[in-house]
Amino acid sequence: MVLVVNINPGAVAGGSGGQYFVGDFDGVQFTADSDSLVPADADGNVDLRHCLWLDWGRDYYAAVSFSNAPENRRIMIGWMNNWDYANSLPTSPWRSSMSLAREVELAMVDGLPRLVQRPVLPLDCGEPALTIQNMGLRDSLLPLPDAVPGSAQLIEPRSCPARHGALRSGFSAHRAGAPQRFSASMP
C-alpha cells in the first residue's frame, strides 16, 4: 500500500511537492514501513534527499491516482505548478496544466519496495496519422497538416543519423507566424 502526502512548503526542490510512504492500511490507520521513514537529526531536521518523492522537480504537486484502469493499472497525474510561483507565471493559456499521466506501481528496487513510474502511452484517437519514412537527411521544412484548434499533436521523431553518415539529427516544431519554437537534436 502507498500513502501519498502532498506538502507545501517543504518539498525537496522547494515549495510544493509530493512525498509517499510504503506501508499497511487496516481500514482505519496507515502504518509506514520503517524503510519509508527518514529519521530526524538532534535538531529535528530531516535530510529531504532521503525521503521518497513522487517527483524531484518543482512542478508536480497535488497528485491523484486512478484505479480500475485496464489490466489493473494505476494511473497518476499531478498539477504542473508550485505554490512558490503559481500566481506569478507569465504564461497563457496553459498555465497550471496537469502533468502527463504516469502509470505507477510498487516494485522492489535494491531490495526495498519503491514506487516506479512510466509515462502512459497515448491512446489511439482514431485520427489518421501522417507518417514519413526514409526522408533524406537535409536542412529543410516539412509542413504538417493543420491542427484542429485546441487539440494536442503527437509528434514521434525517430532518427538513425549514423546509418546515413550524419553526426547528429534533430527536428524543430513551431507554429507559422508564432514566436514559440521547440527544437531537439539527437547525437
Number of helices: 0
N-to-C span: 41 Å
Helix content: under 10%
What series of H and E elements makes up the topology?
Answer: EEEEEEEEE
Fraction in beta strands: 25-35%
Estimated radius of gyration: 21 Å
Counting structural domains, the number is: 2
* Contiguous uncertain segments of 5+ residues: none
Secondary-structure-based class equals mainly beta
Largest sheet: 4 strands, antiparallel
Overall 3D form: extended
Structure explained in plain terms:
The chain is an all-beta fold and 187 residues long. It folds into two domains: 2-119, no CATH class; 122-187, no CATH class. It is built from no helices and nine strands. A four-stranded antiparallel beta sheet has the order 4-5-6-7, with no helix packed on it. A three-stranded antiparallel beta sheet has the order 1-2-3, with no helix packed on it. The protein has a two-stranded antiparallel ribbon with strand order 8-9. The chain is extended. The protein starts with a strand and ends with a strand.
Briefly characterize the structure.
The protein has a four-stranded antiparallel β-sheet, with no helix packed on it. A three-stranded antiparallel β-sheet has the order 1-2-3, with no helix packed on it. The chain has a two-stranded antiparallel sheet with strand order 8-9. The chain has strands at residues 2-7, 17-25, 30-32, 61-69, 73-79, 102-109, 112-119, 169-174, 181-186.
